[in-house]
Design a protein that fits this description.
By secondary structure, the chain is an alpha/beta fold. It contains ten helices and six strands; from the N terminus they run βαβαβαβαβαβααααα. α4 links the parallel β4 and β5. The longest helix is centred in the last third of the chain and has 15 residues. The model has no long low-confidence stretch (mean pLDDT 87).
Length: 210
């Protein structure tokens, strides 16, 4: 069972999101919080596979909560959820290494797909969000040269990560084993001195591999 922590200060919205998420029998919301501070306290007491955090919450917002969770509980995947498709919020969240950014007006299928993609190592961005952030990621791209030490296979994997594919999907596309994809991804992270797959995806976009 996939255990989800859901942090949203509006009770009715939170209940609606929970109902949407739990239409999938594999996923259960096992913790609920009104703000980022409560979310962190819950993570100290319970085990979660993923935290879904609203951007704007009282006491502690989703961005600050994500920053703390990434430091203290790096195994927990994070999806940001908001009604605001502001590029500044998106970039702040992506820089922290979150696994996706969803708008609250999305449908059930998209939400569940994003949850499963994030847990498999993918990066999920709603179309509206992507349209806001892509121009920023591509700024000054002509001045950016891709690391020459990357092998053709590593570049191919990096391109797939930039497209938001998870390890299984990368393996299927390139005809590799999932283990090989994981190992090669670790090598690329080391070479580029990056922290996680989200930063790899941003790198791939900035260097026009996607």
């Amino acid at each position: 069972m996939i255990k989800i922590l859901l942090a949203e200060d509006q009770v009715m919205v939170r209940q609606g999101l929970k109902a949407m998420i739990e239409t999938d029998e594999e996923i259960r919301v096992t913790g609920e919080a009104d703000n980022g501070k409560e979310a962190i306290k819950l993570c100290e007491k319970q085990l979660f596979d993923m935290a879904i955090l609203d951007i704007r919450m009282p006491v502690m917002d989703g961005i600050e909560a994500a920053r703390i969770l990434r430091t203290r509980f790096p195994h927990i995947k994070i999806l940001m959820l908001t009604t605001f498709d502001d590029s500044e919020y998106v970039m702040n969240a992506l820089k922290l290494g979150v696994s996706g950014y969803m708008l609250k007006n999305g449908d059930t299928a998209s939400l569940i797909r994003s949850i499963k993609s994030a847990l498999s190592g993918g990066l999920s961005l709603e179309d509206q969000v992507a349209s806001k952030v892509m121009p920023i990621l591509l700024q000054n791209q002509e001045e950016r040269q891709i690391d020459p030490t990357l092998t053709p296979r590593e570049r191919a994997i990096l391109k797939c990560i930039g497209e938001g594919l998870n390890n299984k999907e990368v393996a299927e596309r390139l005809g590799l084993s999932v283990g090989t994809v994981k190992n090669q991804t670790s090598h690329v992270l080391d070479k580029l001195e990056l922290r996680d797959r989200t930063q790899l995806a941003i790198y791939a976009i900035r260097h026009r591999l996607v």
